[in-house]
Structure formats: C-alpha cells, structure tokens
Amino acid sequence: MKYQVLAGKLSKIEVTSKRTEMTNHLVELFKATPPDHIRDVIGLIRGSPYPDYEDFQYGMAEKMVIKSIANATGLTTNQIVEKMKEKGDLGKAAEEELAIKKQTTLFTKLLDVKYMSETLDKIGRTSGKGSVDTKIKLLAGLLTNASPLEARYIIRTILGQMRLGMADMTIMDALAIAYTDNATNRPIIERAFNISSDLGLIAERLVKEGIESVKDFKVTIRHPIRMMMAQRSGEKEEIFAKLKGTFIAEFKYDGERLQIHKDGETVLIFSRRLEEISEQYPDVCEMVRAQIRANNAIIEGEVVAYNVETGELRPFQELMHRRRKYGIKKTMKAIPVNLFLFDLLYLDNKDFTNKNYPLRRKALEKIVNETEQLRLAVQKEITSEDELEEFFESAVEKGCEGIMAKSIQEESIYQAGARGWLWIKFKRDYKSEVADTIDAVVIGAYVGYGARTGFYGSLLMACYDPIENQFKSVCRMGSGFTDEHLETLQKLLDQYRVSKKPPRVIIKNSTVPDIWIKPTIVLEVQAAELTLSPVHTCALDMIRKGSGLAMRFPRFTGRIRDDKTAEQATSQQEIIDLFKGQLKKIE
Ligand code: ATP
C-alpha cells in the first residue's frame, strides 16, 4: 500500500474536528489496506511503529530534521529555518519546499507503508558513533522520494507532532466498522486493547482471523494491561450502597502505582502511563525476583518512600527523586521504598482479570513472601459505618491518603482501563473544600507582573473530554506556587510552548492566554468550589445553557502528576459528578 494514500487521508482528518468524519475517513483507509499492511498503517497513524509501552524514540532533534530537509531539497538550513518561521511548522515548510523542487525532478520512487515503517524503525534503532549522520541520511532518503504532502507527515511523525486530534477510541470505532460492519463490536476491540495496549496487533488479528478471535484475546506477559481505576465518593452511605453492604477496605498508599510483570528471572515494571520504568526501581525488581513465588505473574502495587529508622511512610513528593535515568544507585539508598501489593492479574500462564477480587487476592497472598519492604496492602472486611470510620482513621494515621473500598461480589473482576464503581476511593480531602483535588492539564500561560516578572503569572488549566477528545478550560490558576515551583514549572512548560492554539483545545475568546502550551503537563489543583461559569468551556451547555463549570479559587497543591498523561487528567464527566455531589451536600 502506498504511503500517499495514507497521507491523503491524514490531511483530511487533520482539518476536521468532527469525530464521525474522522471515523469515516479511517474506515475508507482501512478498507483499502491489505491485511499484511494493517499493523504498519496503525503504527503510522499513531506516529510510531511500536505500541506506546515500548520505549521507542526517533532520537532526532529539530536541527537534525532541518539538515535532512536541506539534504533532500538542496536548500541551506537557514532557508529552511526561515520557511519554518513563516509556516509555523516544519512539516508544512518541508512540504512547500519539496513542492518547488519536485517541479524539476522526474524520478522518484513511490513510498510504500512497509518501507516507511522499516525506515522509521531503522532511524529509531540507529545509535552510537556516527548515528547522527546515519539518521539524517535515512530521513533525507525518505524525503527525496516523498511527495510534498507525504513530507509533511513524515516530518511530523519524526518530531512527534502528528496534530491529528484523534483518539484511539476513534481508531477502534473505525476498525469495528471497516472489518465487522458493525460499530457495536467496538467494546470487543476495546477490551483486547485494554489488556494488551497494542492496537496494531489487535487490528492484525481482527483482519486476519475475525472478531471471534479478538474476543478470545488473552492477557500476555510483558504486554502492559491498562490499569483499573476507582470512582470517588465522600458519602459513606453511597459506598455501602454501591458495594452492596459488605466490602473490603484497603489502605490507599500515597506513592506510585506499579504494574509488575515477572517472567522467570526477568522483571518488567510499568508505570501508570504504561511506560516501562524497570530501570528506576532495581530494588523493587530484586524484591520481586526473590519474594514472589511464581514462574510468571502480573501483579500490581503501590511503591512508597519510607524512613528506614522509623519505618514511617514518606509523602509522594519524595518518591519523585527516583524519577531519573542516571545515578539510580545513589537515589536508591537516599530514598528507600516499600512495595504494597494489592492485585494479581495473571499467574503461571493463567489470566486472572476475569476472576473476582477475593480470588485474586487469595492467589496473591499465596505467592508473596512478605518482608519488611514488600508487603500486602493492609485490608479489612467492612460491614458497618463505624468500622469504616475506624479503618479510615487508622489509614490516615499510618501516613496513607485514605482508603480504597473494593467490591467482593461475584462481578468484582479487574476492569482493565475502566473507572468503575467496583473500586471507590475515600480520601482525607473529601472532608474539606471541593470533594477532591482535580488533575488538570496546562493549556496556556499568562505572563507575570511584579514579583513574577520573567515567570508565568498564572496558568490556564483544562479537563479532558474523552468523547470529543478535547481539552476544555476549567480555571485560571495563579496561587499555591512557591518560587521553586515557578522555576520548575517554567522550565518544564517551556518545552511545550507552541505558537498557535493546539487543535484539541477548546476555550472562549475571553480566556486566550499569552502563551499556548501543548496539553501535556498535568497538575494537581484544589479549589474552594465548582461553580457555573460564563467563561470556561468544561461542561459547556450541559448543566445550564451558555454556562460551563469552573473551579473557584484554584490552588496548586505542589504536585506535578507526571505519572499521568494529559488524557488521564480528570475528565469532564468527573467534574460534572463532583459539581452534582457538591449540590447534594448543600441540599
Ligand atoms: P488519585 O489522584 O486519587 O491517586 P488516580 O486518578 O491517580 O487517583 P485512581 O485509580 O482514581 O487513580 O485512584 C487509585 C490510585 O490509588 C491507584 O492508581 C493507586 O496508585 C493508588 N492506590 C493506593 N493504594 C491502593 C490500593 N490499596 N488499591 C488500589 N489502588 C491504590
């Protein structure tokens, strides 16, 4: 299949923000794709030949890409930089320069998607001495044979700037329609994605073996499972009602969630974002190797920093010092950790995700040798509000954030990738202010004055709407920042500055920021309350015509949620639920 066909569709998808139109373009594309090419096509749409959990990067900075364009067009790098400034995008700059050059060249070979994937793979895998030149040559080779439109998307792929505004859910909708003629089969594809995180593999299975085979998709060791999430509640009665009177409560540890895959002596650790982070936690790998009695297993737990002398748990912020690639041995000593295990998803080649929670926990207990550093999450069966209150107090006293209430009913399976009522979090914050902190995405910044001259003065924050795949503004936040925060955030956000409004960002004219930020960084925000707002676009028209929802007196808690992607930020629906919960309290 020619890459040209794909680039043509991408250019149509890029200019629409309507999900149904995007889906239709994708359906046409998939119908034109030969079965042996579907995996490559999915990779090229998503921007990488590999699923997200593979730590694969092209390793080409903008400067190198400019050199490749110079090689392919015969222009100087300065000329290309000028064009980039004019167009505001290197992809468009390359497209235009190539269009001029192509008028004078006759011989180019048509790029096909297999060749494209292989070359992108080569670019990513080239490393070591001389690799800069090799990468530049490989990319220049692609560009020499590319049509102008193809060049636009090749450059954006390499720079990780596809800008299509398309969610995986839309790709799944299109796969269901293209290959089963029935959009209602999407949940089957979604489940397979939730337990494997590899859309290319699922698409190939669907095309070659049909939807029945996708239904049989099994958990595979070393393929991360999308994590199950919890609903929140501040009402004890609601927890009892949702969990049918009796449930298990567990300490809610305040650390980092890990999904651990033990396969023989190999231990792989995946983060909440499903990135492989085994290298950050050699001590956890060692504990698991030594203390988990299983040939292979997938287990989940929370890793928490602790004080060796007193045994006390330390706040989440301390664990952040472990977020690094170098000098791990030193930080490992300075910040020792405990691991609290709370789930088992796979054991000795058997999928446990469809088993109920009591069975999973029992199986987990059987394979863990508890030590001082490696323990099972503390839990208790709860049948009355007094027991719940007492357990909650003991959790807080031990340095936990609150508790997790978990269903023990027959239906209490591990719901990969879903935020359902089988797990309910009940936290200390619920007793004050808005019933929970909100994880909001930075989408813009306003310049600072007075003491903040030279820094950002305030930030425009958004929630995520997974249905429209859009980021909608929910507040302008200017408090809670220490000088240290201001400096850290400035450095961090500067990496994501863009010249125009990112396509997935939806705001009103009255909130246009001085600087646009690509939705990437998630910050934890506490607010006094949620209010109807004429200026913010979260839940616009959903509660009252012409109004959205906004956070009032938003304050940065100091916590950068770098364990979350922008799409894992608090959703529009969660904010609506919090708003309704607030009304209930007033009533
Ligand atoms: P929060 O912001 O409240 O941490 P979140 O959005 O990161 O929530 P949720 O799934 O909503 O994630 O809340 C559950 C989180 O609590 C888990 O992701 C996990 O990191 C942590 N956690 C701590 N202890 C437990 C436990 N015993 N069982 C399940 N999750 C736990």
Short description:
The protein is built from 21 helices and 21 strands. By secondary structure, it is of the alpha+beta class.
Q: From the alpha carbons, calculate the radius of gyration and give it in angstroms.
A: 25 Å
Helix content: 25-40%
Mean pLDDT: 91
Structural class: alpha+beta
Apparent shape: globular
**Tally of alpha and pi helices:** 21
Give the CATH architecture of the largest domain: 2-Layer Sandwich
The domain tally reads: 3
| CATH level-3 fold name of the largest domain | D-amino Acid Aminotransferase, Chain A, domain 1
SS elements, strand count: 21
Q: How can the largest sheet be summarized?
A: 8 strands, mixed
Bound molecules: adenosine-5'-triphosphate
Please report the first level of CATH classification, the CATH class of the largest domain: Alpha Beta
Strand content: 15-25%
Flag low-confidence runs: none
Mind telling me the CATH superfamily name of the largest domain? DNA ligase/mRNA capping enzyme
Distance between the termini: 61 Å
Give a verbal description of the structure.
- Helix content is 39%, strand content 21%.
- With 587 residues, the chain is α+β, with helices and mostly antiparallel strands.
- The protein has three domains: 48-159, DNA ligase, ATP-dependent, N-terminal domain (DNA ligase i, domain 1, Orthogonal Bundle), CATH 1.10.3260.10; 229-431, DNA ligase/mRNA capping enzyme (D-amino Acid Aminotransferase, Chain A, domain 1), CATH 3.30.470; 436-586, OB fold (Dihydrolipoamide Acetyltransferase, E2P) (Beta Barrel), CATH 2.40.50.140.
- Strands 12, 13, 14, 15, 16, 17, 18 and 21 form an eight-stranded mixed beta sheet that branches. Strands 3, 4, 5, 6, 7 and 8 form a six-stranded mixed beta sheet that branches. A five-stranded mixed beta sheet has the order 1-11-10-2-9, with helices on one face.
- The longest helix is centred in the first third of the chain and has 15 residues, at 131-145.
- The structure holds adenosine-5'-triphosphate.
- Adenosine-5'-triphosphate binds next to strand 1 and strand 2.
- Adenosine-5'-triphosphate (ATP) is lined by residues 229-230, 250-253, 257, 302, 342, 377, 404, 425.
